[in-house]
Amino acid sequence: MPDQHDLEPIDPSTAVEMYLQERETEVSKATLKAHGYRLDYFQRWCDEQDIENLNVLSGRRMHQYRLWRREVGNLSNVSLKTQMDTIRVFIRFCERIDAVRNNLCESVVSPSLSPNEDHKKTILTNEEATKILNRLERFQYASFQHTLLLLLWRTGIRLGAARGLDLQDYDEPQARIRLHHRPEQDTPLKNGSEGERLVALRPDTCEVLTDWIENVRPDMSDDYGREPLFTTSQGRVSRTAIRENVYRLTRPCEYTGECPHGREVATCEALDDHRKSASKCPSSVSPHDVRRGSITHFLSRDVPEKVVSDRMNVGQQVLSKHYDQRTEEQKVEQRRGYLNNI
């Protein structure tokens, strides 16, 4: 490894570009995009500090960046850890290409998280999901919103998996869907080919899916000539459209008519016509929160962890740490139910 005098000058933007090019074949598009977004802040800081050559970076400089990043984004410990973990990987890459001094990555410090901070608690609860789906079934039966949320809740599949489904992936006679990894046609799965699997459906879920396909679904193809399960007038539904619809549907005022936060519904910023306004509701949740809630619901109904792990395509250790939102009281009472029969 080079010492301080053997470094080769390189500007921040060139180093970031080289890093992203290297990672392009190693990580998913979503992960690469996230890394690019985090490194945009690093480049912004370099501009503010007049750093045109990464050779000048030091442990003190990296500490200054950490403080700046926390302040400029008002970040929680969890968010700051994510940011700094990416920076550490980037600096380690820079060491390999003789852009920064040896072992500088060891000076990139991430916050230590308590057990309670290390996983997110936001979920769509079973009670909330039931209320939303009952309302949709009554007033918007087999609509895009009804079919989408029903499938996300009943299967726990990821946003990208739902978006990537084609009509041919739905097997009505066998009551199941098949998930395919098709990165070359813009519908990858989170875990690549290892995420490919069959997912069983309940009969009443199939009824809604079939009615959506036969009576409501816009008859559109995507840019690759495939027939998506979820379409709009432009073709395959976008990730953004799925996310925004879930945020809208999970605002409490949508399915209860009341605001639990004491806001005036008529003037609430989360009800503006702007497409991103729904996420401003403190109670609205993302598609991943629906997945987290679905997994928690399955576990609460005594479905074995191995079954949930296979169905949702998530390792049992990750499932337990990041998805299972049952309280300790719920867990002990479920265990009691087994023990009482012994």
From TrEMBL:
<dbReference type="Pfam" id="PF02899">
    <property type="entry name" value="Phage_int_SAM_1"/>
</dbReference>
<protein>
    <submittedName>
        <fullName>Phage integrase/site-specific recombinase</fullName>
    </submittedName>
</protein>
<dbReference type="InterPro" id="IPR013762">
    <property type="entry name" value="Integrase-like_cat_sf"/>
</dbReference>
<feature type="domain" description="Core-binding (CB)">
    <location>
        <begin position="10"/>
        <end position="95"/>
    </location>
</feature>
<dbReference type="InterPro" id="IPR011010">
    <property type="entry name" value="DNA_brk_join_enz"/>
</dbReference>
<keyword id="KW-0233">DNA recombination</keyword>
<dbReference type="GO" id="GO:0006310">
    <property type="term" value="P:DNA recombination"/>
</dbReference>
<feature type="domain" description="Tyr recombinase">
    <location>
        <begin position="119"/>
        <end position="336"/>
    </location>
</feature>
<dbReference type="InterPro" id="IPR050090">
    <property type="entry name" value="Tyrosine_recombinase_XerCD"/>
</dbReference>
<dbReference type="InterPro" id="IPR002104">
    <property type="entry name" value="Integrase_catalytic"/>
</dbReference>
<keyword id="KW-0229">DNA integration</keyword>
<keyword id="KW-0238">DNA-binding</keyword>
<dbReference type="InterPro" id="IPR044068">
    <property type="entry name" value="CB"/>
</dbReference>
<dbReference type="Pfam" id="PF00589">
    <property type="entry name" value="Phage_integrase"/>
</dbReference>
<dbReference type="InterPro" id="IPR010998">
    <property type="entry name" value="Integrase_recombinase_N"/>
</dbReference>
<dbReference type="GO" id="GO:0003677">
    <property type="term" value="F:DNA binding"/>
</dbReference>
<dbReference type="GO" id="GO:0015074">
    <property type="term" value="P:DNA integration"/>
</dbReference>
<dbReference type="InterPro" id="IPR004107">
    <property type="entry name" value="Integrase_SAM-like_N"/>
</dbReference>
